[in-house]
Design goal:
Length: 318
């Protein structure tokens, strides 16, 4: 039996006696991001021991969403599961098989909490979906519900603008003649975007750096607060955070060549001043900030043609 054939998918479901919303919680969408896995298993154990009582609705926990990547303790198996997430009739890569199992499971729920971590140092944050709109990219009508939940996860930083910014990057790649999967706006669709397209609300919680011992605690608190806010469990209703910072992504810059390097070791949400050097291209050209803002998701190991870093500005969304 091959290594892949020995893998399996697992979801753990609990149903309360009363009616209520259906929540799904994901861990290890990226295999080296294990804080969600640890927190999910801790909460499941509490439910099974009777220490946490589920009274209404339904909760499905997926401790390891991408078992191939998890088995190798790496971000992905064959590709990034959190890009171009859609069922396919002809799966070619392992993540295609995950999508064929995961997408129907997401569609059967009302609310998604997707637990992640990141590779550079930084504070936890929530990725919000779009504001209410009737556009063609990501139409949405439940922003108030989504924001209300986000404010109760226990973190203070909120970021939005993901798919708009990704689509703008795609348009730039297309104009430059790039022909790859990254030159398609649908490639920016991950778990939360897919969930919203099915009518639900969805949040990605980035719980901290991969190895931060506090990251599983952030994930654990967020799961319990979500259960309480949705009135699925016998827990005190969480209060919204009173101190918050909202940022909006507005630009994505790709790495062009292996020789592209950062001017200094950036961490997510490091402030940057207009005109400050962020990186240097392989041919010596400098990439400078076009305004005051923040560097987000810097990836010094990005492959040429992929996202190198994002830029964000302050927002009054939250």
């Amino acid at each position: 039996m091959s290594r892949i054939e020995s893998l399996h998918f697992q979801s753990i479901r609990f149903d309360g006696l009363a009616t209520g919303p259906c929540l799904i919680v994901l861990g290890a969408v990226h295999g080296n991001e294990t804080c969600g896995t640890q927190a999910i298993r801790r909460v499941v154990a509490e439910i099974e021991r009777g220490e946490l009582v589920l009274t209404a609705g339904r909760v499905s926990f997926v401790p390891v969403t991408n078992p191939l990547a998890y088995a190798h303790n790496r971000r992905m198996g064959d590709r990034n599961l959190n890009r171009n997430l859609v069922p396919t009739a002809a799966p070619e890569q392992f993540e295609d098989q995950v999508a064929n199992w995961l997408c129907p499971l997401l569609a059967a729920h009302d609310v998604l909490l997707d637990l992640h971590s990141f590779h550079t140092a930084g504070q936890p944050f929530v990725m919000l979906g779009p504001e209410n709109n009737t556009g063609t990219l990501e139409p949405f009508a439940r922003a108030d519900e989504e924001t209300a939940l986000a404010l109760r996860l226990g973190v203070h930083r909120f970021v939005d603008g993901w798919l708009d910014t990704y689509a703008a990057g795609v348009a730039r790649r297309v104009a430059a003649g790039v022909s790859s999967r990254e030159a398609d706006a649908r490639y920016g669709v991950g778990t939360t975007e897919y969930m919203r397209a099915q009518g639900g609300i969805a949040l990605t919680l980035e719980c901290g750096q991969h190895d931060d011992p506090q990251a599983p605690e952030v994930a654990y608190r967020a799961i319990r607060n979500t259960l309480a806010h949705l009135r699925l469990a016998q827990l005190p209703a969480p209060e919204p955070v009173t101190r918050s910072e909202a940022l909006r992504l507005y630009s994505v810059v790709d790495r062009i060549a292996e020789g592209d390097t950062f001017c200094r070791p950036w961490a997510s949400f490091d402030p940057v001043k207009q005109g400050e050097c962020i990186g240097t291209r392989h041919d010596g050209r400098e990439v400078r900030a076009d305004s005051d803002g923040y560097v987000v998701f810097p990836n010094p190991g990005a492959q040429p043609g992929q996202e190198w870093f994002y830029l964000a500005r302050a927002s009054d969304r939250v």
